[in-house]
Write a structure and sequence with these properties.
Blueprint (H helix, E strand, L loop, with lengths): L1 H9 L10 H36 L6 H13 L2 H29 L8 H16 L1 H13 L12 H20 L17
Helix pairs in contact: 1-2, 2-3, 2-4, 3-6, 4-5, 5-7
């Protein structure tokens, strides 16, 4: 596994050649673990803001007051959270791009197929960033209405953004599990697993 990680780190800009399934999936696993750690670290300030807001309402606060205070405290963090998510997505594209192209080559497919998940990723990021004001407005409305029910009226763009956000993973898995071509193809000899 460490060899696969070292190889992929040293070949981040190498879009030529082929890559077998095992080293590719070890690399994907390493990137996934990095994502989990980054998400936890980025989420801590927002969670602390929410906890602080809940504590500030005091023990006598009713459920609606606590929810409104939490929503108000978190609404200021939405932009940072979305931009952090966009940065993580861009990092994923950089870390996985070349390995995914080499994996596509190993299955006999053109590396240009990498544009499918990249397009979905870009569209998801654009929708997420442009919907920041709508999300903050929904959270503010929840505070004003003293009810978290207003948050259930999330912008419709959220569903499309979520769908587009998951598509790169579906495509990565779909193309990544394809069998390697056992013979030499236009991208070279079969790699040693």
């Amino acid at each position: 596994m460490l060899e696969a990680i070292k190889y992929n780190l040293s070949h981040l800009s190498d879009f030529g050649g082929r890559q077998a399934r095992p080293p590719f999936w070890y690399w994907v696993l390493a990137v996934a673990v990095l994502n989990i750690v980054a998400t936890i670290v980025i989420s801590i300030p927002m969670a602390m803001t929410a906890v602080d807001a809940a504590i500030q309402t005091g023990p006598g606060g009713d459920q609606a007051t606590i929810e409104a205070a939490v929503a108000q405290g978190m609404s200021g963090q939405v932009g940072m959270l979305v931009w952090s998510s966009v940065a993580i997505s861009a990092l994923n594209a950089i870390l996985l791009g070349a390995a995914f192209v080499r994996r596509l080559h190993d299955t006999g497919l053109s590396g240009w197929f990498v544009l499918l998940p990249l397009g979905c990723l870009l569209a998801s990021a654009v929708i997420a960033v442009t919907s920041i004001p709508e999300t903050v407005a929904a959270m503010t409305q929840a505070v004003t209405a003293s009810s978290a029910d207003a948050l259930e009226q999330t912008p419709q763009s959220s569903a499309l953004q979520s769908l587009l956000g998951w598509m790169p993973l579906v495509l990565l898995i779909g193309f990544g599990v394809r069998k390697s071509q056992p013979e030499t193809n236009r991208w070279g000899e079969p790699p040693a697993a």
